[in-house]
Design goal:
567 residues, Beta-Lactamase, Heat Shock Protein 90, six-stranded antiparallel sheet, single chain, alpha+beta
């Protein structure tokens, strides 16, 4: 199988963009969690959640239905992009409509056209005829087997979300379920629940601290310290379960007693983690397993209490709390630690994914930079070989087309050289134009001619693929200006002006030469350069080309396109 080396940079860019999307999802999850943890007042919290969720998912509308356990209904409780008067007025039975069906099945339902879905049921007050794509994500607390509600995303266009987006929404729904459940507990009127308010506020603050960063080392150290605060433990140690499902690796620790207490044997802590994970794996729906190992063996080590760390992808390890005196944490502290560890496990997974993505992105960026460097070297070698033929050709007729080919190759090589020095995969049209005009000034000018090349305008960023295409285009237009517009002249001006407005880039190449003949049409009268220009602009840049008179006195060719930068 023959591999086209020219395709390698684009493949690497696609991998880089995929990694950037993963980093963006982690950042989006971080934003949603911050919104959910911003307050325990249910209404403001829901408003902030739907606003943030709609923003990070770029949806046209977002809604949250809460489950009323007494009546068994779903009640519309917050919206953005939909009429506010619908809040509290729209109710659904479990199984009714797409939203109710997702709640009954306890699984995501994603449809590109809600109106064509068999379960679609029009609702009064919503006025959602203009919305098509619909995603319903049930918010469920698997530990207690309770449905909290349903998060809906609505889009004007018809689209289908990928598996990565659906997995991301599942994680978001789990985060929101915990936050909403805490907020509803806060609003409950039962006296026993009000006694938990202070504890929930503490948990909320601690959770905010844990999720305030994506740095893995800092996350692990913060979790260990905050677990000691919540459980009032003397020593805390965290362990990660190995790929074999048996071995345990120490992750982080914290000593509140500055080493003054009795030492904790490593095997004692690991055994507690193993027992806790075994109990949790046998019956995940049961209450949190409390594993304690006392000083029955006479070692005087106090008590070790262990909590397993579990995410949606399975068990990842455990946290051990060591108490020099007493029998371990109280029941209230156990409840706090259980909720804290659920969030801590997600925070660890987020930080690890972010760390892996960042390292992989660095590696891919270095690889892409090396690819640009090698392509540049190869192109320069080809240009050098062709230049030797040009010098041998002398004044023969075929020397000029060969010289133009050399200039095109050198322009592309210059762009790859630029991409090895600038931000990987991104440069500006101005930089490309400057490199191309510099090449033209050294290779295309007639002997003794003095032309002024000007590059002006706003810096407009483009991807490496677009930069390569623009190098060819600007080279063709500058060559046309030199060889045709300024033909027979020893002095002249060639100007490249870049404009940027409303996301569109305009590249204007003009000269002060003789201009276009009357009735000139590019598709009929243009040479190879203009044909290349029209084909590349329409197919690669998806833009337009126009010919105009130039204020300088000659002709102007204007390219207009919208850059397609990576996420």
């Amino acid at each position: 199988m023959v591999i086209d080396n020219r395709a390698l940079p684009d493949l690497a860019i696609q991998e880089r963009e995929s990694l950037l999307q993963q980093v963006a999802r982690l950042d989006a999850l971080h934003q949603i969690h911050r919104a959910a943890a911003s307050t325990l007042d249910l209404e403001p919290m829901l408003e902030m959640v739907v606003t943030t969720a709609a923003a990070v998912m770029r949806s046209d509308a977002c809604s949250v239905y809460l489950h009323d356990e007494e009546r068994g209904h779903l009640i519309l409780s917050a919206v953005v992009g939909l009429p506010d008067e619908a809040i509290g007025r729209v109710t659904l039975a479990i199984g009714e409509g797409i939203t109710g069906l997702a709640a009954r099945r306890q699984t995501i339902i994603s449809t590109p056209d809600a109106h064509a879905h068999p379960a679609y049921a029009p609702m009064p007050y919503l006025n959602d005829d203009h919305l098509h794509a619909h995603i319903s994500v049930p918010m469920f607390l698997p530990a207690v087997g309770r449905l909290v509600g349903v998060l809906n995303l609505h889009f004007r266009d018809r689209r289908t979300l990928g598996d990565d987006d659906l997995a991301f929404l599942t994680t978001v729904a789990g985060e929101l379920a915990i936050a909403i459940d805490h907020a509803r507990l806060y609003q409950a009127t039962d006296v026993a629940l009000h006694r938990k308010v202070a504890e929930l506020q503490t948990l909320q603050k601690v959770t905010a601290v844990v999720t305030s960063t994506l740095d893995l080392t800092q996350v692990l150290e913060t979790i260990a310290e905050q677990a000691a605060v919540l459980g009032q433990a003397d020593v805390v140690s965290m362990y990660e379960l190995g790929p074999d499902g048996e071995s345990l690796t120490f992750l982080a620790g914290y000593e509140a007693t500055n080493g003054e207490g009795a030492p904790v044997r490593e095997e004692m802590r690991k055994e507690a983690v193993r027992r806790a994970m075994q109990i949790s794996a046998l019956d995940p729906g049961d209450s949190l397993p409390v594993v304690t190992t006392g000083a029955d063996d006479g070692a005087g080590e106090g008590t070790v209490f262990c909590i397993p760390l579990r995410t949606a992808h399975g068990m990842i390890g455990g946290i051990c709390l060591h108490f020099d005196m007493g029998n371990g944490p109280s029941r209230d502290q156990v409840d706090l630690l259980e909720s804290f560890c659920n969030t801590a496990a997600i925070a660890i997974e987020q930080a690890r994914l972010y760390d892996d993505a960042r390292r992989s992105l660095t590696s891919k960026s270095a690889l892409l930079q090396e690819m640009h460097h090698r392509v540049r070297n190869n192109l320069q070698t080809v240009a050098a070989l062709l230049s030797m033929h040009v010098r041998r050709a002398g004044e023969q007729a075929w020397a000029l087309p060969l010289k133009e080919a050399v200039n095109r190759i050198r322009s592309i090589a210059a762009v790859h050289d630029l991409l090895t020095r600038e931000d990987i995969g991104i440069t500006t049209v101005n930089e490309v134009a400057k490199l191309v005009t510099d090449e033209a000034a050294t290779t295309l000018l007639p002997p003794g001619a003095e032309y002024l090349f000007v590059v002006a305008g706003e810096p407009a960023e483009v991807s490496s693929r677009e930069a390569t295409v623009l190098a060819i285009l600007i080279n063709e237009l500058v060559a046309n200006a030199v060889l045709h517009g300024l033909e027979g002249r020893m002095h002249g001006v060639v100007k490249v002006h870049i404009g940027l407005a409303d996301g569109q880039v305009t590249v204007r190449v003009e000269d002060d030469g003789k201009g276009f003949p009357p009735g000139f049409r590019a598709e009929r009268d243009g040479g190879l350069g203009l044909q290349i220009t029209q084909n590349l602009v329409s197919t690669d840049l998806r833009g337009t080309v126009s010919l105009e008179p130039s204020p300088l006195g000659g002709g102007a060719v204007v390219l207009t396109f919208t850059p397609r930068l990576g996420a």
